[in-house]
Batch of 3 targets.
Target 1
Amino acid sequence: MGNRLEEIYCLLYDVYGPQGWWPADTQFEVIVGAVLTQNVAWKNVERAIENLKNADALEPEKLIGLEKEKLALLIKPTGFYNAKSETLLRVTKAYLSERWEDLSTKELRKRLLKIKGIGKETADSIILYAFDRAIFVVDKYTVRFVTRLGITTHETYDEVQRIFHEQLKPDVELYKEYHALIVEHAKKYCKKQPDCAGCFIGDCKFRKESQI
């Protein structure tokens, strides 16, 4: 299976090239983006990030000083803005007080998951993209991708993540690129209604079964 995952990565990389994730100027911007991108397209996050920059609020010390209503208005393009503003304030408070850089990856993940509004995908996105720690991010695209290929029949976050951790070397840049490439492929071909005819990845369980 390890070779299979590596082969798929090489195929994706050859076709799509480097994705350059995560687009941000600072570590804190990555953290903010990881919270805002929950249940929304990235283009909406970009609008909210631009609003925060224009308001000179995309620094932890400045964001934490905003009233919740003001913050909610700035991030309104991302939807669920009242809940997300509360989560951002909680995350920022913890970021300023807990010295996350000094924590082990395991402890950092534990701390993040204790923050209301932070789930596994958001926590792992922060750990991988903001702190450059080797932890694989699993999202709905990843689950769909690996189950359709037949790499696993399990659709739980932990099980899918375990497979990547066991079968790939713990490499930060590899994890970043692989996650981004899967998202790109899932949007182009491995959609809810897949374009199997256009897909260039062979030996797909889903494609074989759909042709029976």
Target 2
Amino acid sequence: MRHLLSTRDLDRATAVGILDVAEDMADVAHREIKKLPTLRGKTVINLFFEDSTRTRTSFELAAKRLSADLITFSAKGSSVSKGESLKDTAQTLAAMGADAVVIRHSASGAAQTLARSGWIDAAVLNAGDGTHEHPTQALLDAFTMRRRLHGSASRGKDLDGLRVTIVGDILHSRVARSNVWLLQALGATVNLIAPATLLPVDTSGWPATIGFDLDTAIDDDPDVIMMLRIQSERMNAAFFPNAREYSRQWGLDDERLARLRPDTMVMHPGPMNRGLEISANAADSARSTVLEQVANGVSIRMAVLYLLLSGSVKP
């Protein structure tokens, strides 16, 4: 891989390979010294134009565990607030000797522009661009599913036959888009559930089925149910009557939780709006993988940084 911009670029073999390397990286967390010398001498720049907790922190930890030099850039308090362009910001940071740039940006396509413009000579990792994609989130979600399914025998496995239901604000969700394409590549089937106002206008090319009724989707007995955050910061209109009505129709409340199989995975990419898209009991139940997703994010991001900067041979 030269860049990681979209899960559409990943075939099954490549995706499974990334997950397998992440298994090796996960082992590092259990060592007394949680570090590898793999990226010593490499420089990773975190270029975040949007607020982030989980993604930014896990990329920082991933780079440090691989012994890379790390620069974390936040648009707040920088020359961006003075009107500096993405091109000038990227080139300024690249002049410092960046080997990889991890970018999160509010504009869809920003990562692709950075990677393909010729402005910098560094690997580009898309950490979320507008409502387009968030490939490492989808990879950590798939990694979490695979570990729940196969445990210590996960290496080399895909997700053939797994039935995944993704619920909520599909329209604004880069997580949903990345998951749809990655899960399809790994052999899973995807069902999208949302109010009609929170679905993209055209999903005809998406490898997923579309529905509007969460109760019907639960009756279909999914193996995984992934709840999405309502992204009110991206909404400039009323997409549903009110929060109470949304929770009643499309929230994973305690009654719906009780109807799921004991081994059904309950996922959420975070941050969660408890009581809106997911109840506290659902978020904290034994079915929930929320904290596993956070921990697995470090392993996935270690794997991606390693593969982009060191090649395809396992450490």
Target 3
Amino acid sequence: MDKNKIQALITLLDDPNEEIFSTVEGELLKEEVDIIPDLEKAWETTFDSKHQKRLENLIHNIQFKNVKSGFRSWLANSEDDLLYGAYLVSKYQYPELTYQSINDKINQLRKDVWLELNDHLTALEKVRIINHILFDVHGYTRNNSNFMAPQNSLICDVLDTRKGNPISLSVIYSVIALRLGIPVYGVNLPKNFILAYLDDAADLNTIAQETEMSVLFYINPINKGAVLGRKEIEFFVKQQKLEPKVNYFLPCSNKDIVQRMLNNIYYAYETSGHKEKAAEIQELLSLFGNISG
């Protein structure tokens, strides 16, 4: 749609006739996010509260459509990029957030770890260095004061505040490790979320067919990267009265991780009474094929 036509449609958004407004809104909703500056400019130049509300709703709906499109594309083509999936989760709350801003902060953390590494370190020594940089130097920790807040699952907020929940801290940890060639992957453990350090010879694509011996040990980012053995995970599963499952001990997919981040946000909005936001998150979850995952 050309610029002049878009401008003409925007001027019709204040039409009192609901049928005309609905038609105009429908046409504008077909457009991409690059029309948002024009909508924002229209909002700034009107003093009619009803018109402003219409513009606000339209801007939000276009931005939400953009996030949905991003998730569809990620699920179809780019699921191997965990950080981008986590970025899309944040983009729901912060529509103008850029991937570059997230990526730059992760790369700085990666650089800080890389400076301390060398080729002769054991797996445990590498983990101790990551733990030192993340938890001692940069002060990443669990958000104890507001653990259920949706911000704990938004990677941009966690990178800014250095406080998060098990899954967001695990995402940051895993992405940094993998960018350094260290095989650390997420494990979708119920009522927690941990990481598995794989044997270098393990192939993640066939890990489900392998035995748990492919995992050298586990890492608990919510407890400053404490190293755990299989028996400690078994004890946790028993303590939580969970039926033991193989997938509690093996790496999960990036799709599973991002889906769980969205689930956390959904429950945060649902329990705090933000029903509209919860419904939109549920709409995003429906793209994953199982909203309860």
